[in-house]
Amino acid sequence: MLTFGIKFLSMLIIGIAGGTGCGKTTVVKQIVQELPENEVGVISQDSYYNDLAHLSKEERGQVNFDHPNSIDFDLLISHLELLRKGQSIEKPIYSFVEETRLDETITVHPRKVIIVEGILVLSNPKLREMFDMKIYVHADSDERLIRRLQRDIKERGHDLEKVLYRYQNAVKPMHEQFIEPSKEFADLIIPNNHYNTVAVDMVRTIINDKLQ
Ligand SMILES: Nc1ncnc2c1ncn2[C@@H]1O[C@H](COP(=O)(O)OP(=O)(O)O)[C@@H](O)[C@H]1O
Ligand SMILES: O=c1ccn([C@@H]2O[C@H](COP(=O)(O)O)[C@@H](O)[C@H]2O)c(=O)[nH]1
């Protein structure tokens, strides 16, 4: 049996970090693709951006969304604790276009395996301690910037100037201060300048092992 030395608890929690555009969401989608939906759940750190409903759209535009203080880690941690106890949670929904939480929530039920992905999930010590396995997805910064530009313009309603301004003033400095240093906590680093099907298969094997 392939266990990679992981001590399996009742619920396996996997944390996946990496800089913006490194491909975290894509890797997670590939991992869960062939796994049973009712056994594996995914929680994105993005859902836990602070509720900024009290700010105007202009004020929200000034927020540093790459600093750990922009994330409600307490809520994320308490939700994971509830899931681990077998209870369901109401996960917030974050709109990248509105840059705030929506009023609706999504009910997430406990699963045998929960994947938590986000730029800062390995930077928070308390959250990090909850992970049975820690993964860092790496892609070079120029590759990430190209992907981010394409995605934010196409999917998140930003223009070229806004993406570049944010990249220089928040994304890059916060990456260097908080995200890149969190790589040292990873059990596994996935190189993702190109699609990495071997690494995806390895993680899927570990999860499948847990599901037997
Ligand atoms: N290995 C890859 N090669 C090329 N493009 C990729 C790769 N992985 C992801 N992408 C693309 O890059 C963009 C950002 O990927 P995404 O998974 O959203 O990254 P993240 O969640 O880390 O910000 C998406 O448009 C995605 O299709
Ligand atoms: O309202 C927002 C909130 C966050 N961002 C940016 O999103 C990325 C993190 O998401 P990834 O999917 O990992 O790229 C972060 O770098 C924030 O700058 C945003 O643009 N707007």
UniProtKB/TrEMBL annotation:
<dbReference type="GO" id="GO:0005737">
    <property type="term" value="C:cytoplasm"/>
</dbReference>
<keyword id="KW-0067">ATP-binding</keyword>
<keyword id="KW-0808">Transferase</keyword>
<keyword id="KW-0963">Cytoplasm</keyword>
<dbReference type="GO" id="GO:0004849">
    <property type="term" value="F:uridine kinase activity"/>
</dbReference>
<dbReference type="InterPro" id="IPR000764">
    <property type="entry name" value="Uridine_kinase-like"/>
</dbReference>
<dbReference type="GO" id="GO:0005524">
    <property type="term" value="F:ATP binding"/>
</dbReference>
<dbReference type="InterPro" id="IPR027417">
    <property type="entry name" value="P-loop_NTPase"/>
</dbReference>
<dbReference type="InterPro" id="IPR006083">
    <property type="entry name" value="PRK/URK"/>
</dbReference>
<dbReference type="InterPro" id="IPR026008">
    <property type="entry name" value="Uridine_kinase"/>
</dbReference>
<dbReference type="Pfam" id="PF00485">
    <property type="entry name" value="PRK"/>
</dbReference>
<keyword id="KW-0547">Nucleotide-binding</keyword>
<keyword id="KW-0418">Kinase</keyword>
<dbReference type="GO" id="GO:0043771">
    <property type="term" value="F:cytidine kinase activity"/>
</dbReference>
<protein>
    <recommendedName>
        <fullName>Uridine kinase</fullName>
        <ecNumber>2.7.1.48</ecNumber>
    </recommendedName>
</protein>
<dbReference type="GO" id="GO:0044211">
    <property type="term" value="P:CTP salvage"/>
</dbReference>
<dbReference type="GO" id="GO:0044206">
    <property type="term" value="P:UMP salvage"/>
</dbReference>
<feature type="domain" description="Phosphoribulokinase/uridine kinase">
    <location>
        <begin position="13"/>
        <end position="198"/>
    </location>
</feature>
<comment type="similarity">
    <text>Belongs to the uridine kinase family.</text>
</comment>
<comment type="pathway">
    <text>Pyrimidine metabolism; UMP biosynthesis via salvage pathway; UMP from uridine: step 1/1.</text>
</comment>
<comment type="pathway">
    <text>Pyrimidine metabolism; CTP biosynthesis via salvage pathway; CTP from cytidine: step 1/3.</text>
</comment>
